[in-house]
Known about the structure:
There is one protein chain. By secondary structure, the protein is an alpha/beta fold. It has one domain: NAD(P)-binding Rossmann-like Domain (Rossmann fold), CATH 3.40.50.720. It has 7 helices and 7 strands; from the N terminus they run βαβαβαβαβαβααβ. It has helices at 12-23, 35-44, 60-74, 101-131, 154-174, 206-210, 220-232; strands at residues 3-7, 27-32, 50-54, 81-84, 137-141, 179-185, 240-243. The chain has a 7-stranded parallel sheet with strand order 3-2-1-4-5-6-7, with helices on both faces. α2 links the parallel β2 (27-32) and β3. α1 (12-23) packs across α7 (220-232), α3 packs parallel to α4 (101-131) and α4 (101-131) packs parallel to α5. 43% of the residues are buried.
Amino acid sequence: MDTLLVTGAGNGIGRATLMHFHGAGWRVIxxxxxxxxxxxxxxxxxxxxxxxxxxxxxxxxxxxxxxETIGDWLGExxxxxxxxxxxxxxxxxxxxxxxxxxxxxxxxxxxxxxxxLVSRSAIPLLRRAAETGDSASIANISxxxxxxxxxxSFAYAAAKGGIDALTHAMAVTLGPNIRVxxxxxxxxxxxxxxxxxxxxxxxxxxxxxxxxxxxxxxEPQDIARAVEYLHTAGFVTGQHLNVDGGMTVKMIYEH
Length: 255
């Protein structure tokens, strides 16, 4: 049975990815700061095939402790796919001249530093899969904001741009045994995939849907399917896949 590890697994894209792969017969490991969200997943998934750990993946000691538990749970088994999904969802930080270093560092650590720390600990487990001829892959969740910006999103954009650069550097170094790609989500509606206390079902305007060439706003399952594709795409590494309904290639003018 193949095994997936997802950071930021409690809500949104991470939660949908975890559930998608578990539904496909995988064992899953989820890391998240939100233990209430993880507890809902613990109630929904059997202990034999799901390990949910409360962990601040931007902190070195916390990641080391989590991987001790992961190592015990896996035993001699391999990790096949890592999804570095954690991050601060809200991209807006206010005027640059008012942005405190501590807040800036929060965005960087939650996404970029976390991807480094978790990947560093996961690589030996991923190599086990490669040694047996199985596919071993990492999907780093970036953002379309790595290549295009809205006002006052400096730290978020920098973190995701760093994820893009980390991706191709890792792909070159870790190949051929471990393939590494990035996924750049566009507008993904995560409301239905939040923990129950914060779950929402927004009714989007027609104009919101129409600005996407595919005619709808994205769903977290779209990202889960992209992770699945990249894990099986044996000749794809070091790439940055926009999953945005075509929004970033459509010119939009104000009228």
